[in-house]
Amino acid sequence: MSSKLSAPSRRIAFAIGISLLLHGLLLWGPNIELPHSKPSLPPLAAKLEALPGAPATPKPKRKARLAPKPEPVEEPIAEPIAAPVSEPIAEPVSERTTQTASAEDIPLAASAVAASAPPAAETIAQPESASAVERPTLPRRAQLAFDVYNGTSDFKIGEVTHTLEIDDGHYVLHSVTSTVGLARLIKTFKLTQYSSGSYARQGLQPEQFFEERAERLSTQRNTVEFDHAAQRARFSRSGEAVLPPDTQDILSILYQFPPLANTGSVAIFVSNSRKIERYEFDIAASENIQTAMGELRTVHLRKMHQPDEEGLEIWLAQEYRLLPVKLRIIDRNGEISGESIITGIRAEFEEETKQDVDH
Question: Are 220 and 237 in contact (CB under 8 A)?
Fold first, then answer.
């Protein structure tokens, strides 16, 4: 039997030997690390960017409007002036110049009504003068008392007292209006007005008008000064305005109408504490009215106004030097909102007239 292996057997034995050698090297041989085949990647980075906006649509150009050329206006505005201090008021009260018995407003017909728009600094035409006839001389001292009624009813809601003093070419005119009775329970108020200036043969020329309207929670004061030399009216709250000749305030107008002879109407400028207005009055030469002083023959003046404007009527007593004896206020709806009717007149004239009145 031959000891040599055949060629196939030798091949098998050689393969087995190589396999055992490789396994031994893997189990007992040194650790060998193989390099990684994948390269490392850079870190991720996030970045927010605004989306591109849509292109702006161009707006069509508007044609510029041509504004009308303004009229020349005087620009200077005066600094507000301080109102004079009136006599102490015992109790705070409400405001108004006409009469109603509503809880919101109780107007009194104690003074003329004028709007509250700011004064316009524009040239104002001088009113046409009436016939040149002398006015009756005003008393040196006078006190007039009025009862105030709601509308044309007999419901009395207030009282008014006027006092006039003239001395050495100067006058002071003072008016106090206050609620009474049931109206006072609804809304208590007091209206104080003060007019002062010079007095000559031509009559009253106001230099200052002061008005205070007081109610329980607030008090309003306004003043206007008349600079006749500069022809300017200066308001405590609303600057300046042109001052027409012979302008009156809403209190002095009751005692200072132009001559009333041979004319059916008369125009006059009137200032409240906020502006100047042109009033045109229709005149009824003679009208008798009933008062607490009896029947009085009067000149009846009716302010002309548009349907949506406030109206004013004044009766001047012919037997009492054209002193005011009745006032009527008409609201914007054409309704009579209140009347003030005379209850008494006390007057003292200059010595040469020898006429004292006490009714």
Answer: no
Average pLDDT, whole number, for the chain? 73
What's the number of CA atoms in the CB half-sphere (13 Å) around residue 250? 27
**Can you tell me whether residue 259 is helix, strand or coil?**
coil
What is the pairing mode between strands 276-291 and 265-271? antiparallel
Q: Which two tokens stand for residue 8?
A: 């196939």
For residue 176, CA distances in Å to 150, 211, 213 come to 18, 10, 10
What is the predicted pLDDT for the residue at 188? Answer: 83
Phi, psi (rounded to 5 degrees) for 134: -65, 145
| Separation between Cα atoms, residue 104 and residue 180, nearest integer Å | 16
Of 99, 272, 257, residue with least CA distance to 187: 99
Q: For tokens 């509250």, what's the residue? A: 116
Per-residue pLDDT for 86 more than 50?
no
Could you read off the pLDDT of 321-331 as tens digits, one per residue?
A: 999 999 999 98
Report whether 158 contacts 180 (CB < 8 A).
yes
* Cα–Cα distance measured from residue 173 to residue 353, given in angstroms and rounded to the nearest whole number: 21
Q: How far apart are the C-alpha atoms of 92 and 179, rounded to whole Å?
A: 11
Alpha-carbon span 330 to 339, nearest angstrom: 9
Q: Is the pLDDT of residue 174 over 60?
A: yes
pTM exceeds cut of 0.90: no
The pLDDT tens digits of the residues spanning 98-153 come to 333 333 344 444 443 333 333 333 333 444 443 444 578 899 999 999 999 988 88
How far is it, in rounded angstroms, from Cα 95 to Cα 106? 8
CB burial string 20-45: b at 16+ within 10 A, e below: eeeeeeeeeeeeeeeeeeeeeeeeee
Strands, DSSP E only, in 168-317? 170-179, 190-200, 203-214, 219-227, 232-235, 239-242, 248-249, 265-271, 276-291, 294-303, 311-317
Distance CA 34, CA 211 (A): 110
Q: How many CB atoms lie within 10 A of CB 121?
A: 16
- List pLDDT tens digits, range 12-49: 767 777 776 666 655 555 555 544 444 444 444 444 44
